[in-house]
């Protein structure tokens, strides 16, 4: 007798721990405060606690709990398990891959589908060795078993793993499939009855065309599913709708198949449930990923029940989340300060498990939950927090379609050269300086009232003074104030804008041990007062050199927040842009000559499907342009983007019409500059220092990168800067790295 697939399950659960236990363990281990054994036992305890907690929440069936475990990243974890990434089971080697060390640079990191989670990109090569290390996953099964849990091991699938690697080396697929087969055999031997394998590559347009990907899917999975010795396979397709791959998935007929039926997916593909119903084999258990794994709104259970009807499984439903819950906070229980009405509209990971159970039970079995859901939907739609007539009127008064800053780039560029008088290859940083213990303490003391408003302001001014003095001493050309007042580049603005709420404990993993606390856009957005002017003005008063005003752009504020699901994203983006445009005006009035509008998330909101991208880029570019539309010609507008894969959106980045664009480039060794063409007119600062890694780059290394950049960018347009802000680094690295950066610039500039 085989064990049937559980009725209620989830695709994955936040790994970081309700009190960020994983973060603490990782950082303690890296700092040498705990040894490997303590690290393993601490994280083991966290995993077992999590399984116990999930069982208490109602995931009581065998294999209902996914063991989606990873110390640093799920792609790295699977890569090591199946041997596509060599490194076996050595903890330090694993972290060296993730973070680099004295002798090796880390793997490149990039966003996981259209989320703010970053995965490590496997570097693979034709003919490479693939030796699986199934003991990685067996250990998890065993420790869970000892604690009384039959968990479902999680792997990223072979097709997705290659599709996300660099390069997507498909010649490795047969060998990789053998490796999965070996891992499956080991799991079977260990008595595991269900394994979860995620193939989200089928929902996205990646570098491999959809049709070709569908073929690889057929090739890989017909072989894997034909293996005798394997657990039952739960194949999953989170993050969107499968298109060309759907009939193939139907034919392959794994024992269970997950489809993403989140509001987002259904918005862009309303016929998906019917297609799923038509294609999926009767022998396959269809698992409806109805509960949104990426947003925090309480589900409209009635609407979800209708989707189950259209799938034809209302009477015998298997329900899950659309994606792993790793993208949402643990529990609303940790929020004591949310307005009660707002709290009723929300649902975090733990609450979502309750919604899944309600859908499995149906209205007859869960009438209370359905009544609560009805009430939340109604009160939210009627609330004044949701709708603000003044904001709506302002947005209605905006011109529609594209907007254009006057005069043109070349005229502005001339005016700015005169106003700023910068040297060749000007140097700058991206904005933040190290968030030191003292800053964090001052912020905490201010929050709990130990530090008065005035004392807090004084502490921040003192910090700004030091940051300015350091930059003057090192010899940077365009200075920054260092952003000490910001806990986070989005949250800071969200706290000062109307239409947002922020959480106290809503931490979500961004990469490795890094977490963010995304704010929630709950309604129409507006700016009650200036947000950054006093800090920028103070910093500028301390230096003759230009100090950059520092704003987070509308697309990024939106991307890194939980979004409204009751209006199009474009509407929220325009509202945020209008608020920021007022801030630009106030910064200019305060004498700021250079203003940076960060849009590191521009690519992240890019739809996974190519045919949906133009419409997105139109509204995203428009929102950015609205912010600087009225800026004076001599005000130099910078933008900053945080990734290296640039090709897909190069036209949109050009379309932002910024005066200077800084981008991440160090890890990918300036590769992206090959995409730069004549449509891209702005000055450009490709990062020469990878600030995600704790290394201090040498002068020679950075000089080499500047010279590489000069092969594609003329010297008059090239800036020299790090990849990103310095807030996660310490002064011990920042000080020598910046000095080396200036030395590298001087060395290269001398030779020009
Ligand atoms: N100005 C921000 C900083 O330096 C930009 C950060 C980012 O792009 N993620 O911290
Ligand atoms: Zn950045």
UniProtKB/TrEMBL annotation:
Binding site for Zn(2+): 640, 642, 664, 724
Annotated InterPro entries: Cbl-indep_Met_Synth_N, Cobalamin-indep_Met_synthase, Met_Synth_C/arc, UROD/MetE-like_sf
UniProt KW keywords: Amino-acid biosynthesis, Metal-binding, Methionine biosynthesis, Methyltransferase, Repeat, Transferase, Zinc
Cofactor binding comment, as recorded: Binds 2 Zn(2+) ions per subunit.
Annotated L-homocysteine binding sites: 430-432, 598
Pfam families: Meth_synt_1, Meth_synt_2
Required co-factors: Zn(2+)
Gene Ontology biological process terms in this record: methionine biosynthetic process; methylation
Residues given in the record as 5-methyltetrahydropteroyltri-L-glutamate binding sites: 23, 116, 514-515, 560
Entry annotation: catalytic residues: 692 (proton donor)
Biological pathway: Amino-acid biosynthesis; L-methionine biosynthesis via de novo pathway; L-methionine from L-homocysteine (MetE route): step 1/1
Domain Cobalamin-independent methionine synthase MetE C-terminal/archaeal: 425-744
EC id: 2.1.1.14
Residues holding L-methionine: 430-432, 483, 598
Domain Cobalamin-independent methionine synthase MetE N-terminal: 8-311
Gene Ontology molecular-function annotations: 5-methyltetrahydropteroyltriglutamate-homocysteine S-methyltransferase activity; zinc ion binding
Role played: Catalyzes the transfer of a methyl group from 5-methyltetrahydrofolate to homocysteine resulting in methionine formation.
Annotated family: Belongs to the vitamin-B12 independent methionine synthase family.
UniProt-recorded name of the protein: 5-methyltetrahydropteroyltriglutamate--homocysteine S-methyltransferase
Species, as recorded: Corynebacterium glaucum
């Amino acid at each position: 007798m085989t064990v049937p697939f559980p009725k209620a399950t989830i695709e994955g659960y936040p790994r970081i721990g309700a009190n960020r236990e994983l973060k603490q363990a990782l950082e303690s281990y890296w700092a040498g405060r705990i040894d490997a054994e303590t690290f393993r036992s601490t994280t083991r305890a966290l995993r077992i606690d999590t399984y116990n907690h999930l069982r208490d929440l109602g995931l009581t069936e065998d294999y209902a709990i996914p063991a989606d475990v990873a110390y640093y990243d799920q792609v790295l974890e699977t890569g090591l398990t199946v041997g596509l990434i060599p490194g076996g089971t050595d903890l330090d080697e694993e972290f060296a891959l993730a973070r680099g060390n004295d002798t090796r640079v880390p793997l490149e990191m990039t966003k996981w589908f259209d989320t703010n989670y970053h995965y490590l990109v496997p570097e693979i090569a034709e003919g490479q060795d693939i030796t699986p290390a199934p003991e990685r996953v067996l250990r998890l099964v065993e420790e869970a078993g000892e604690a009384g849990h039959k968990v479902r091991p999680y792997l990223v699938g072979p097709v997705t793993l290659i599709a996300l690697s660099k390069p997507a080396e498909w010649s490795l697929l047969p060998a990789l499939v053998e490796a999965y087969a070996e891992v499956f055999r080991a799991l079977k031997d260990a008595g595991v009855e269900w394994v979860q394998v995620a193939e989200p590559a089928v929902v996205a347009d990646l570098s491999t065309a959809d049709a070709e990907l569908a073929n690889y899917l057929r090739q890989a999975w017909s072989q894997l599913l034909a293996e005798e010795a394997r657990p039952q396979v739960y194949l999953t397709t989170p993050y969107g709708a499968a298109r060309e791959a759907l009939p193939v998935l139907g034919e392959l007929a794994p024992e269970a198949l997950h489809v993403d039926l989140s509001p987002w997916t259904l918005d862009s593909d309303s016929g998906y449930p019917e297609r799923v119903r038509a294609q999926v084999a009767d022998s396959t258990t269809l698992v409806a990923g109805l509960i949104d794994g990426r947003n925090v709104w309480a589900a409209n259970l009635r609407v979800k029940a209708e989707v189950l009807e259209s799938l034809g499984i209302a009477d015998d439903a298997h329900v899950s989340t659309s994606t792993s819950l790793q993208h949402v906070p643990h529990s609303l229980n940790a929020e004591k300060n949310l307005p009660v009405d707002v709290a009723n509209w929300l649902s975090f990971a733990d609450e979502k498990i309750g919604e899944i159970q309600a859908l499995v039970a149906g209205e007859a079995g869960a009438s209370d939950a359905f009544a609560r859901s009805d009430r939340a939907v109604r009160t939210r739609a009627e609330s004044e927090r949701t709708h603000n007539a003044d904001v709506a009127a302002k947005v209605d008064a905006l011109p529609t379609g594209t907007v254009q800053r006057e005069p043109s780039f070349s005229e502005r560029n001339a005016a700015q050269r005169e106003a700023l008088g910068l040297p060749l290859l000007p140097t700058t940083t991206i904005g933040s300086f190290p968030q030191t213990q003292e800053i964090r303490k001052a912020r905490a003391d201010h929050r709990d009232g130990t530090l008065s408003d005035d004392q807090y302001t004084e502490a921040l001014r003192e910090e700004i003074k030091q940051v300015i003095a350091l930059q003057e001493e090192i010899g940077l050309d365009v200075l920054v104030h260092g952003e000490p007042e910001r806990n986070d580049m989005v949250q800071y603005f969200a706290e000062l804008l109307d239409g947002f709420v922020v959480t106290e404990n809503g931490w979500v993993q961004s990469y490795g041990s890094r977490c963010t606390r995304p704010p929630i856009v709950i309604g129409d957005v507006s700016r009650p007062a200036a947000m950054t002017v006093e800090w920028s003005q103070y910093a500028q008063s301390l230096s003759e050199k230009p100090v950059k005003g520092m704003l987070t752009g509308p697309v990024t504020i939106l991307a890194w927040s939980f979004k409204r699901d009751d209006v199009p994203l474009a509407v929220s983006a325009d509202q945020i842009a209008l608020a920021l445009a007022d801030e630009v005006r106030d910064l200019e009035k305060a004498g700021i000559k250079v203003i940076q509008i960060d849009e590191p998330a521009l690519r992240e909101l890019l739809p996974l499907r190519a045919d949906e991208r133009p419409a997105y880029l139109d509204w995203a570019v428009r929102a950015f342009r609205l912010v600087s539309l009225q800026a004076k010609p001599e005000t130099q507008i910078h933008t900053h983007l945080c990734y290296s894969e640039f090709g897909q959106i190069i036209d949109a980045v050009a379309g932002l019409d910024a005066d200077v664009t800084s981008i991440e480039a160090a890890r990918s060794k300036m590769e992206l500059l090959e995409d730069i063409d004549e449509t891209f007119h702005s000055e450009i600062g490709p990062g020469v220092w990878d600030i995600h890694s704790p290394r201090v780059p040498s002068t020679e290394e950075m000089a080499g990168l500047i010279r590489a950049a000069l092969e594609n960018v003329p010297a008059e347009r090239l800036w020299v800067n790090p990849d990103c802000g310095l807030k996660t680094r310490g002064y011990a690295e920042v000080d020598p790295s910046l000095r080396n950066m200036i030395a590298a610039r001087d060395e290269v500039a001398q030779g020009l």
